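User: Quick sanity check before I run a bigger batch. Here is a single chain. Can you write out its predicted 3D structure?
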Amino acid sequence: MNLSEITDPVLGHLEKFNTYFKAMLQTKVSLLNLILKYVTSKKGKQLRPVLVFLSAQASGGVTQRSYIAAALVELLHTATLIHDDVVDEASERRGLASINAKWNNKIAVLVGDYLLSKGLITAIDAGEFDFLSVTSKAVKRMSEGELLSIDKSRSISVDEETYFKIISDKTASLLSTCCEIGAMSSSNNELYREAMREYGESIGIAFQIRDDIFDYTSRSSLIGKPVGNDIKEKKITLPLIYALNNSNEKEKSSIVKLIKRGKLKKAEIASIIEFVNVKKGIEYSEESAKMYIEKAKSSLGVFPESPAKESLLRFTEFVLTRDN
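Assistant: Done. Predicted structure follows.
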């Protein structure tokens, strides 16, 4: 499914938002201006602003508050990406050198901090304290999820419950926030707010499961990272968790020892991928993603029919069928 079809009902708002967002990032510090221009030079899919505007439109209509909401989540998202690149020692982001690689870690951390503070100030200046409350909880969850993930990767011991806790906090929390504050920006209807929060949480979980499946199935040219990268980084995701849970002790011990050892050869990574496929880890994960997609669709039942609601329903299909 083409993402442009999904964004069509809010395309005009998205174009206005891009101009609004760039103007917001003008500062009196030349180095900061240079880096911020670099950061915004290659836009991604802009899923988060799109979700804010679609949620707002479906809940009553896009308002000026919706632009503030979209800016807040985009600032937060961009800051976390920059900080993540420092933590992961990543050298690239969206095909460009990461800030930490092009400049250095100190500058990258400071730019991330600037964007976080810019988001706080934007919300405070506009008196949007409810937005601030929701986004602050998301930042807390994202940090907790990342730390839990790091902790578990050291011991190679992740069960399904822990896995879902991690991806819910790391990924779903921000998408849930986008949809919730989108609804808040256009309506005081608590039912709409709750429904959008649940919708965002469900698609966020499905989105991450799909991402984790890619590590076992996709070509690196499509997903922008080598296949088996999660295995190399000792990230235990749903396909592998299911495979391990459905293995005998000898098989399980052998795979866990291999991953713990690290520095895996291509043949060893291929053998782990084959193990996951044989144990139907991919099939199970795909079914889990579908279950969350159905939950997301169900959440939209409270909203009247509209082009925005139709796009949100289409977005669930996009999450399930996307290949990058």
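The chain has 17 helices and two strands.

User: Great, the batch can go ahead then.
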